[in-house]
Fold each of these.
Amino acid sequence: MAEPKRILVRSGKAPEQVLTPEAAFAYTDLGVYARNSGNAIFTSAVYRLLNTPDAEVVSDGWTTERPGVTDAHIDRINNEFDALVLPMSNSLRMRFTAGRARLTKVIRKLKIPVVVVGVGSQLSVRGDWHWISDEVKQNTREFVAAVLDHSASIGVRGEITRDYLLHLGFADSDVDVIGCPSMYDNGRDAVVTRKVDSLTPDSPIAVNVDYRVAGLDRVLTENQDRYPNLTLISQDQQEAALLLWGKPIDGYPKTLPGTIDHPLYRQDRIRFFPDPIVWRRFLATKDFSLGSRLHGTLAALSAGTPAFLTVHDSRTLEVAKFHGIPFRLAKDISGSWDAARFYDELDLAPLNRVRAENFDRYVAFIERNGLGHIYQPGKANPEYEAVLEAAPHPDGFGPLTAAAPEQLASRLCWLWQGTESDRTRIEAAHRPDFFPNTDQPSSLDSQLKSLEKRLAVLEGGLWGSIRRRIDRGARRLAGKVGIGSGK
């Protein structure tokens, strides 16, 4: 079978594509990183792997799983591409049931190979799936079956996910355990070593925190004063909004920076990175990374910076075990959470020892599924590497109150949106008392007509989607309260 020449990859954007932070943030309601910039770490790694000189790789912009995908869209995929590659993370989780169902419907209609790379479940640290409902299990079973109808195997993150799929009735030969693609972005022989013998109060370190898990905030609270050169790496979209615009985060733990009043915000010690390449460059300058965010940890390791992962679920546990990443179960950590303690516990030997074997397993999976890659003889793509390296990606951004002049200008220009938008503003706009031509329509009439024109343009796009969602929600609410039903 000939290798695909045009490959559609599930991702927010091409790694070399340069966007301002505001544009990246404003792409639909998900941003280009699907609410979590960690997604760009593994999608970019797969995109780069497949980008051989004889192949064209295209990002799908998350459109393949979006609600309302039409047959015409699916026909375009069939007609214009030779393969669909789906880099995934914890997409076998409970909360992705609707997204899996949409992807399943699309895959069933495709006539080209479909390869899933690095998918995982999200269970407790015990890996117990027995509590999952039969409905959700069937949803997962249908998705995996649809994928296997279009590929030789499915690539999963770790042994816990593999066992889950065997429990669902799939054969061992259907499943390849390959870990996370981001761990192979530096090739087969890369190693991670200590940069310093021990941490000092002046050590530059990075921390990351999953705000959704109680107790993990100690990674930050017990270190932010100990290490003045500590930087918190944010990944969540609402955290990006806090940095860009100062928008408070509703319901955020008080110990974490959810408002502009938090000390780390005021001290300019928070960063958000929409692009993996600048994220890694920043982490390469640090002595150590500590935290509970999986892709924040993987970003540090792929930058050559020692990292320690505080594990709280099967998702983080199976990847840490497979790749030999230094970790501790969060529930088993007693006493101090001082970063120096975790640095002293670092054992990087397992990570470096399994790297080559895991890499070989990964590329064997890629080849088993008929895809070429840049590590095959004659398939290296230095031209693309040069383009990616030279792309003028903006640096990670920090708090609004500490933004550089060019960052402030970018944000203000984004808010301004041009004179056309200014003419539609009502609040504080000037309205003259006298018009020379009495037949001239009022300023308000002009505004309404301008808005009608803009709405007509937007109707088929995002605004139309929003309006349709509002209409559906209103109908559901009306049904519940009995409006128009005679109740």
Amino acid sequence: MNANPILLQKKYSRVIECFAKQQGIPLDAALDFFYHSEVYQLIRDGVSDMHCMSDAYLAEELGQEYSRKE
């Protein structure tokens, strides 16, 4: 299933903000990490309707990916 591109952009911004707060990192660092993450690729490609997951869940998934890459 494909989501509306405008709604996806809003979703991305909320997830990035939540992720930055959880990790205690600047928004620009969170933005850069997000757009190079596996989570972003899954959402963008519509895999498993990831865009339907809550912002907090997606931020947590990003956090797990972030901790693996540090």
